[in-house]
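chain below, 458 aa
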Amino acid sequence: MAKLWGGRFSKATDTMVDDFNSSIRFDKRMYAQDINGSMAHAEMLGRQGIIPKEDAELIVKTLGEIKEDIEAGKVEFQIDAEDIHMNIETILISRIGDVGKRLHTGRSRNDQVALDLRMYLRDEADELLDMTKNLIKALLKLAEDNTETIMPGYTHLQKAQPITLAHHLMAYCEMLRRDCGRLADCRSRLNVMPLGSGALAGTTYPLDRDFVAEKLGFDAVTLNSLDGVSDRDFVCELAFDLSLIMTHLSRLSEEIILWSSNEFGFIELDDAYSTGSSIMPQKKNPDVAELVRGKSGRVFGSLMGLLTMMKGLPLAYNKDMQEDKEQIFDAVDTVKMCLPVFANMLSTMRVKKEAMLRGAKGGFTNATDAADYLVKKGLPFRDAHAVVGHMVAYCIENNKAIDELTEDELKKFSDLISEDFYEAVSLDTCVNQRKLTGGPAYDTVKALIEKYKTEFLG
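prediction:
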């Protein structure tokens, strides 16, 4: 096949170079964006009198037919046509001849690929945002069912203070809410149209860039042609946003894995979201959570690949930048695979409330409240901290919990302690007295859930 750019060359490209240079294997997924962008460009060329209006109309009509044929599986892309852009233009020319050759007037593949990628990632960002919101909805439902399910909170993976499962889950809602904000911000920054930048220096044709931008749903046009073709900040930014989403999913995956173990026994995953062992009949493995945790590294790798690719490139376009697509496509695909299965895993798991409560009763999670009790009786906090520290040591030696000590035993540590101590260190009190904004008190968390429901459920 003769190359559309082959006029300057005296021999054909080596077949090995064709294969090495080609990106059609992975950029063919952008066919719809490429065709939509070309249709808008052709319409603008006709409106501006740059090409005959009837030619523009024929180009637009034929591009629409090509799109229908692609979606019907009637088009076979060619490796020696290099990429989706040249493939579609080649097909167009094969159908309408010289008229099709007018399409590329005032345009370079450099600004064309930047346009297509922005449009494609804009669509993907919208879908990812919806998926992230759906995961928040699954967490909200689980939290709403567990506003009074007391469990141990941890620091350093050591039992720290009693909280509720709802409070714990709402922490992940906060993370994912920020992820939604980042995706929306990224979308707004990538929704700027580069077409009209040409190869690097614009064009002498009187293009109406604003018309094309409005036609394609862009908020603005790029203001520097060099940056217009060489900017991949939006790709790196989306990859970073996806990496943070995967970080959050991986953190919760780790907890799901721990909680489903025999040692914790806080939850049981549904059979439909677990797997077994080929040799050990008793096994029920949290493979979904483990795979999500593992796939996070894959997405992080895409981000590092993109940043490393871009860090040494002079202006403007360089062929290195073809490598952006496989990285960001894989990151997008991976996150889109993880989000729905993760939401379903959470929605179907069974919470073992009694096991969580037992976990909170062990490990002296009410020790801070014992110290606070003494502070409210007039003892300086540092002295109260030391008193309760001695109390915990005594409990460990005698295999007792703080609230299992008799009043006589308690008075050995401080005369300030009286019978109201037991109510002060009960787990319900420990949780519900923490009713400041952001705290785990039942009503505080319920109010936060309602706020989230208004925002995400409408």
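The mean pLDDT is 95. The chain is about 60% helix and 5% strand.
thats it, cya
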